[in-house]
């Protein structure tokens, strides 16, 4: 018995070690814990994702406005040298086409071509800038609508000396206002825009007609041209509202009354009146003055 008792007392009983984080063991999540984590992540996403998207869109709109202002300066430099505005480039031309990014016709020694006016985008090569400089933050070429074409051939701002007002004597009654009265778009913030109405923001009769309009078609991109030369006919996101349709490219330049206007309005998220275009619209007189071609006494 004593031998047997000695045998059992010498055997050490071992138990499996319990895993614990403090002991370097590997722990795991239960299904309930994983479900709770996913629920929390989902709730955080629902709260913060819309705010993040809003911040991103606001940043893109700010970037695009800065680009439009830089394009306005490039236009002024062109006018200073050439005493006219450039014709638009044809946005329907694909990469690799030698005329892509050039005013039409190239060089601009004649009236602007029909395709150039109809599919008008900023002629970045003619202005000596990059395609990226003429592209908004949503990768859409900036639309360029200029007071030119067959309907206004005699007063086209793209013709030789078309922007030169230096021969006008401001001391002569009606000299400046008469010249301006036949040139420039109207700008409105509504689709129905009778001359002299509350919706009219700029007009020739008020001597603040618009020389050209630069249009970013915003986040939904509809009505513009891609950098690949494709017309964006399908909306990307909400809209378009009736105000946006006025600013579409791939359409004749709006020089005939009473539809001789483009739209500049506040951003609107209402689906029935959605509007996210960003517009820059310098007046004829402001462009001439910026280029040093304003009216002066003999």
Task: Kindly list the characteristics that best describe this protein.
alpha+beta, three-stranded antiparallel beta sheet
Instruction: Provide the domain count.
Output: 1
Topology, number of strands: 10
Relative strand content: 5-15%
Distance between the termini: 137 Å
Rg over alpha carbons = 32 Å
Structural class: alpha+beta
- In which range does the helix fraction lie? 25-40%
What does this structure look like?
- This protein has 298 residues and is of the alpha+beta class.
- Helix content is 30%, strand content 10%.
- It contains seven helices and ten strands.
- The strands form four sheets. A three-stranded antiparallel sheet has the order 4-7-10, covered by helices on one side.
- It is elongated, with a radius of gyration of 32 Å.
- The N and C termini lie far apart (137 Å).
Secondary-structure topology with pairs:
Elements: H1 2-10, H2 31-82, E1 89-90, H3 114-118, E2 120-121, H4 124-127, E3 140-141, E4 143-146, H5 175-180, E5 186-188, E6 200-202, E7 212-216, E8 225-226, H6 242-246, E9 261-263, E10 278-280, H7 284-290
Parallel strand pairs: 5-9
Antiparallel strand pairs: 1-2, 3-8, 4-7, 5-6, 7-10
